[in-house]
Amino acid sequence: MTSKLQAPKIDIKSFLSESEGFPLIDVRSPAEFALGHIPDAQNIPLFDDHERAEIGTLYKMRGKEEAVERGLEIVSPKLALFVRAAKQISAEKKVFVYCWRGGMRSNSFAWLMNTAGLNSTVLEGGYKTFRNHVLSYFDNKFELVLIGGPTGSGKTAILKELEKKGEQILDLEKIARHKGSAFGSVNELPQLPQQQFEHGLFLELKKLDLTKTIWTEDEAFSIGRNKIPFALWKQMKQAPILKIEVPFQVRVNRLVEDYRTTDTELLKKPILAIQKRLGGLATKEALEFLEKGELDKVAALALVYYDEAYQHDHNKREMKNIFLVETETGDPLENATKILQMKKSLSIS
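^ thats the sequence. predicted structure below, dont judge the formating
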């Protein structure tokens, strides 16, 4: 007979749906949590990093029994702290708990919560199951259409206008907290670990109708430190690209507008990062222009570098999937309209 204090275990799909609106508690060590966790989960670790390492070593050297005994010695003085921490975040006295594999850590914690009057549920298979669920989701078929074009074309702004028109979008740069260039981290929050980036993608894709078009930018495999999951990346490489062609000066003006209020010191580092490709003289000129506040000249020099890099990548592509959308304006609404018209004329699903 199952004890009333023993927490029920549920599968990953049930866990994600039923836990919505309730506290998620990750009982793994802080280092495990920092590497990746279920979005919105809060960390109440049974063991700190040092304690976890000690128990792991003991398990290997002395066996399970001694490791469990040592674990109990470590955890016992913390029990009241665990209960208080859980109650502080659980107004409705209901929590959802997970560890790495849905084993002793989450079950023990859930038992304690139930003993203390909280209603707890455990994720069967733990965080490992969640990770597998996330990664397998990228194997789905996505009806992707990519917006291409060199730096300064306003692709992100076009995406936002498409969304306002009721289109489905996947803003990879927003999720990655990076604009995908040497200047990509400027004016952005620090990037999240790779696993959290993947979780963000998963949550955004889950909101979308997979039978309908999903617009996204034509990105490189790496966006800053984050990498697009390979299954999704493969589909992006096979998707049609609507390449927006904007006049050079319009692109310069956009970059100036994007960075005109940015601290000069923040712009020096990315300029130096592309020094090898930009060349010593052009780098020196760019830094001098930056000091003088002549951002238009800095932008023009940077675009020469980025255009060469873009063309190099573009030359590797199959031209049959690339469709040009020519425009004389940088207005994102007008360009979004032109892109939709082009898509309609091509009968892209």
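The chain has a mean pLDDT of 94.
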